[in-house]
Amino acid sequence: MIRFGILGAGDIARKFLDAVRQTADGEVIAVASKSLERAKAWAEQEGLDAYYGNYEELLSDSRIDAIYIATTTNAHYENILQCLRAGKHVVCEKSLVQSYEEAREVCALAREKNLFLMEAMWSRFLPKTVTARNWIAEGRIGKVNLMQATIGWKADKVYSKRLFLPELGGGALYDIGIYPLELLPYLVNQNILDIQPMMARYPTGVDDISSLNLRLENCFANIQCSFTTKLPEDVLIYGEEGYIRLPKIHYGNKAFLYDHGDEIIDSFEGGLENGFVYEAEEVIRCIAKGEIESSVCPHEMTLDAAKWIDRVLQSVPVSK
Q: pTM value?
């Protein structure tokens, strides 16, 4: 049994807790927040006996094997270092960190400590993602030449205020652009070779609209993301013999395969309601086997994405 502690008593942590409870070999036993009252209320709502008003106490709990980090993006780097130094395995929400150098450092420390570390790109594990990747590998749409991905909505400035604030690690790329940036290369098993960005900045300085043209090893792709504009949130993968459509890039449960005549010739629908279960099962499996990274979400995935986000954000002026 792999026992988890949670850093950050928020809504997304509830989804991870529910996912772990659906696994056979995992258990969440404690939560920590910077507010003892918040941690206590969260623990009582979720039926946990242990809660802490600071992270140090949670990390000193010898019963805990691994930590799920659900704090805001700006805190991830220090939280990960703190957990690894305490000898805990780590799965951390995306974006894992805010720069390539931070990514390189935490991955190196995990290797040094022989501890598991994974960015929580749960969408790579979804059955519809696996299905589409298999269709592509099997040549069902021939050689892939183009891909498109959109992801975005109009965020509430109060409930989702972290998106608008650079001090909390806000911005479209860090929060939602990370999904297609880490999913599209995985679908076609290719590396990104170059990115040409266009970007609009919110008055606070974070990117609220980003459009990226990608050159991969054997195809092109376009990514559009925004937290001030509603977008379809779909993926389209175009091949010489047909195309694939994935509705709702990061959480959907459907995949459609089309021929030249725009006719659906194959489709998939299925998967658990809480897609975090597949991610949780992978984390538990890797830790139990003594692995320090996942083959589905390896350190290389995180390092590559961090490198490209660095280049994009540094290449576009702050002002609109």
A: 0.96
